[in-house]
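Dear support,

I submitted the protein below through the web form. The confirmation email said the job was done, but the results page showed an empty box. After a refresh the structure appeared. I'm attaching both so you can tell me whether what I see now is the final result or a partial one.
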Amino acid sequence: MERFAQNRYTNFWKTIKEREIIVTDLQHTLERSVGAVGIGLHTGEKVSLKINPSPANTGICFVRRDLSPEQVIPALADYVVDTNFATSIGTKRGSISTIEHLMAALLGAGVDNALVEINGPEVPAMDGSAAPFFSLLQKAGLKSQAEPRRYIEILEPVAVSRGDKSLVVEPCKDFRVSFKIEFEHPLIAKQSFSGKITPQAFERHISRARTFGFLNELEFLKKNGLARGGSLENAIVLDETSIFNDGGLRFSDEFVRHKVLDLIGDIYLLGAPILGKVKAVKSGHTLHHLLVQKLLNCPYAWQFVEQGGTWKVPYWLGSQEDLISATVPA
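What the results page shows now:
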């Protein structure tokens, strides 16, 4: 009797007619606006920002609300104006510096479109990592949009180098980063990181890694108008042998993880997430920007693609639109 029942239901399922539907990876913006107030790492100025939802296909844009007229600055490589110690974007009428941590959080959280309002020349440092921004984006929530997400698929390797520093992006089915650093400091020495970058991996392994600096460089930086807002609250500070911060490091290899964070933020200035593996050796903001520029100038080395999948489902489950809206998170 039991075997008869099993065969009966098996035959029933075999008679159901199936059809194929295509589910596309959609663009996302924020569900609601969120804001933060903090001190600029280099300017030392108090600044507030607000991250807002934005329509599909608009990308990430910054707005300097303190200027008259207000300045809209797209977060794209063409608008990069400086890469010394941080990444700055701007126009002839104004600029915004130290955008890399926020940009990394936006990419890490899967935000394609957002309008960032700011009332000063620099993104607040927060705690020196991307974690506060990532937490804000989680609080805001993500909203799917009725447009497919476009990825930059790497087709051929593209490389840049300067001295012993090098950076290359290679074809890969997802986004991966490999990074090696070397410092003549006993607490850093040689460190390396390699992994696939997903929202979960970014939050757990990358977002909390803080920027770092050396005490013997602080005077030089301040003379050059930098690090005026730097403190133990927003950076790891080292002397020749030790770390000044109470509580020490968040990871044993926090230094290389922060370098990965910077790279992710700088790479997002391509204007879309990438499908490729980035391999970095002793790289920094300037080399990151050179790679992005070279990649954009090599159209044979990449293409825009949309990701998705094909599902086979019974006809009685409803229309394709119903199924997509029921399975794609809002």
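Response: this is the final, complete result; the empty box was a page-load delay. The radius of gyration is 23 Å.
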